[in-house]
Design goal:
The complex is a heterodimer. Chain A is an alpha/beta fold. Helix content of chain A is 43%, strand content 17%. In chain A, strand 1, helix 2 and strand 2 form a beta-alpha-beta unit. In chain A, helix 8 runs parallel beside helix 9. The longest helix of chain A is centred in the N-terminal third of the chain and has 30 residues. Chain A is globular and about 70 Å long. Chain B has a domain of 199 residues. Chain B has a two-stranded antiparallel ribbon. In chain B, helix 1 crosses helix 9 and helix 2 packs antiparallel against helix 3. Chain B is globular. In chain B, 53% of the residues are buried. The chains are: A alpha/beta, B mainly alpha. The interface between A and B is large, with 39 and 41 residues.
Chain lengths: 409, 290
């Protein structure tokens, strides 16, 4: 019995030896140049990114990925980047900054991608950029508006979005013009939302609006009614939120339930997305949002982008999708200018160049902070998202004041 | 105390109690399953989420009243719960508790991933009842009042079922000691099947009501299951009534923490309660003393 067992083991070992040897032979065969040289297709350029495909930022993270994907399709149809096809390596960071940072480490050290593109959301970018900086990988930080990412002396991260500080400027200035005196500010306690709130507070001081209430809440908070009860007691003219989509929807619903009636609702992310109206229908009317980009903007390539996007995803693109496409365009242009995948040269080019993508203008200061792109204010009117500020891009007149919930149909 | 702030305080309390009742539906189901089987059903939150989506799709595709959709979501999850018990959990009921924890965790991940794949991570809600009913200076949020009413009715019905009917008594007997129950002629396997179905049906009811109050996405179950764990520890592991009381306490505690301190802190209340109860009252409010 024992002897027989040993025999089997012997033969298995032998088998492994032969198998290993033949595998090695096979491999070396591959390395040798083939007898008849065929045109070998150039190795594709691999670009890595982590994106929030699940979790709180999932909706917007997916939009950004769709933008990236559409760009990849376009660039490959045009013959690729530097004559090489573009491939993506995407991972889901579950909307968690710490996961995002780990994934960029993996992309750079394990997957050895040629280039990286930014993740979605400021919190994830904040964490991920520490990794790309460490490996000296230039990152076009597509999905991030938070100013404080660029206050750390980093040299390899470049902003595409309008910085968060300026997000709500339009709403505050407009409110002041209409005679609003008081404002309550609430925000998610993450980098971008904090920045939007900080910017609004600063602007309010400049234009003489008194901030009567401020409070932060955690990501994914389900209940705003105690917070809104406090605001109701103060009855401010403006309720301004540094929000993402889910919280802006909930705040609006619960404000109606508690009959909170400011003259103006304005949220940073949320109202500028089609989903906002889908979730709230008529209750979304009158609500102001800040937008990085709108499909009605007159910039080169926007019309084609909107058409292609609709055809591919059966939905109207929001600004996160356009940002994805535009961010990738910026990287494309920098790589073309350099003419090779030389990370250091690409960094220098990104820092110095000036360009216009379908997403708008791009130019950064010495910190890498976007300096030429404005923010647009939108308002839901009769089920349509109209641009109401600044005036030169406006598609409709802003409606003010917002009627109390009880008087709305 | 000025009248105005007294009014505001009561308003906050109303919000807390209304929310607590929906927590209760979820936690009661979880506790029922734990009581009878000593199985911590980690997938309970996902069953709730499936309830939410049943209501959402019925409303979205067929325009069915979200309250009417309870008639679909409850039996559907009842059957799914029984299926999970019959084919998966029953295999590990007698194994160490870690095994059932792992099995239900696997089920939870499986359902979550499928839901993300098919329905995406979009937040969905059923904007059917909106606004509020005003009584004096108090606003009673319409969706929450309706959810509260239904949650109380369902919880009460299950409570009476457990207390008064023969089958309910068999469930409680199994909960106290499955061996003795078996000796007395209770078909323990069947009771376990029924309990898992019933617990899942309660989760589905919670989900159906939740999608009327909040926006729900596939990961919502995970947020709420953590609250449900805190509630059953607070109310007493295995106690149906305890879970109900614990849920109302958590609802109130969250609302007041958010009001007096900040909304951020209210997120921590569930865990704070959990730690305090474990330290000072390990068997919870109505749990069996060991």
């Amino acid at each position: 019995m024992g002897e027989k067992f040993a025999q089997i083991r012997m033969s298995r070992r032998k088998f492994l030896k032969y198998a290993g040897a033949s595998a090695l032979l096979g491999l070396s065969g591959c390395v040798l140049p083939p007898a008849t040289p065929a045109p070998v297709p150039k190795k594709p350029i691999r670009i890595g990114a982590s994106l929030s495909l699940t979790g709180t930022y999932a909706r917007t993270g997916q939009d950004q990925r769709n933008g990236y994907e559409l760009w990849r399709k376009d660039v490959n149809e045009r013959g690729g980047l530097l004559g090489r096809q573009v491939e993506f390596v995407f991972y889901d960071d579950e909307s968690k900054p710490e996961t995002g940072a780990k994934l960029y480490e993996k992309l750079i050290t394990e997957d050895k991608v040629d280039l990286v593109l930014g993740p979605y959301s400021s919190p994830v970018t904040f964490a991920a950029s520490t990794v790309t900086e460490k490996y000296k990988h230039p990152m076009v930080a597509t999905g991030s508006a938070a100013t404080n990412i660029w206050g750390r002396g980093y040299r390899y991260v470049f902003q595409v979005y309008t910085p968060d500080d300026f997000y709500m400027d339009g709403a505050v200035i407009f409110g002041a013009e209409k005679g609003a005196k008081t404002m309550a500010i609430i925000n998610e306690n993450t980098v971008f939302a904090k920045g939007a709130a900080r910017g609004a507070t600063k602007k309010a001081k400049e234009v003489g609006i008194q901030v009567v209430f401020t409070e932060e809440y955690t990501r994914g908070a389900p209940d705003f009614s105690p917070l809104l009860s406090k605001i109701k007691a103060l009855n401010p003219d403006i309720l301004l939120g540094g929000t993402y989509l889910p919280d802006s929807v909930l705040i609006t619903r619960q404000a109606k339930e508690l009959d909170v009636n400011p003259k103006m609702f304005a949220f940073s992310v949320g109202p500028a997305l089609p989903d906002f109206y889908k979730s709230l229908s008529k209750d979304a009317e009158y609500i102001f949002g800040a937008s990085q980009w709108e499909p009605s903007l007159k910039l080169p390539g926007v019309k084609e982008f909107v058409e292609k996007y609709k055809a591919a995803y059966n939905a109207e693109p929001g600004y996160h999708a356009a940002g994805g496409y535009g961010g990738a365009q910026i990287l494309e242009e920098a790589v073309k200018k350099v003419g090779s995948i030389d990370l250091e040269k690409i960094r220098e080019t990104l820092a110095a160049m000036e360009t216009t993508t379908i997403f708008g203008k791009y130019k950064v200061n010495e910190q890498g902070l976007q300096v030429v792109k404005p923010s647009y204010m939108t308002q839901w009117q009769e089920g349509k998202r109209e641009i109401v500020y600044p005036k030169e891009a406006a598609t409709a007149e802003p409606r003010y004041p917002t009627p109390p919930w009880k008087e709305r149909k | 105390m000025p009248v105005e702030s007294a009014v505001t305080l009561l308003q906050v309390a109303i919000g807390g109690v209304l929310l607590g009742a929906v927590y209760a539906l979820l936690a009661c189901g979880l506790n029922l399953i734990f009581g009878v089987m000593r199985v911590i059903n980690v997938a309970h939150g996902e069953l709730m989420m499936l309830g939410s989506y049943t209501t959402f799709w019925l409303f979205f595709l067929l325009g069915i009243n979200p309250l009417l959709s309870l008639l679909f979501s409850i039996p559907l999850m009842f059957l799914l719960g029984m299926g999970i018990q019959k084919f998966l959990v029953s295999r590990v009921v007698k194994a160490p508790e870690l095994m059932s924890l792992l099995v239900t965790f696997g089920i939870s991940m499986f359902i979550l991933s499928l839901a993300l794949y098919f329905w995406s991570a979009d937040f969905r809600s059923v904007p059917y009842f909106t606004g509020s009913i005003t009584l004096g200076s108090f606003a009673f949020s319409r969706p929450r009042v309706i959810a509260f009413g239904i949650a109380v009715v369902i919880t009460l019905a299950v409570y009476i079922f457990l207390k008064k009917t023969k089958l309910g008594k068999a469930v409680r007997a199994t909960s106290q000691s499955s061996e003795v129950a078996a000796i007395c002629g209770v078909d323990v396997e069947r009771i376990r099947l029924l309990t898992f179905g019933l617990g899942s049906a309660l989760a589905a009811a919670a989900g159906s009501l939740l999608v009327v109050i909040y926006a729900v996405n596939p990961s919502t179950g995970q947020t709420f299951i953590l609250k449900a764990f805190a509630i059953i520890v607070l109310g007493g592991m295995g106690s149906f009534l305890g879970a109900f009381i614990g849920a109302l306490i958590l609802g109130l505690a969250e609302a007041f923490t958010s009001f007096f301190f900040t909304a951020q802190l209210s997120e921590a209340v569930a865990y704070l309660l959990l730690i305090l109860v474990l330290l000072f009252m390990p068997s919870g409010l109505l749990g069996e003393r060991e």
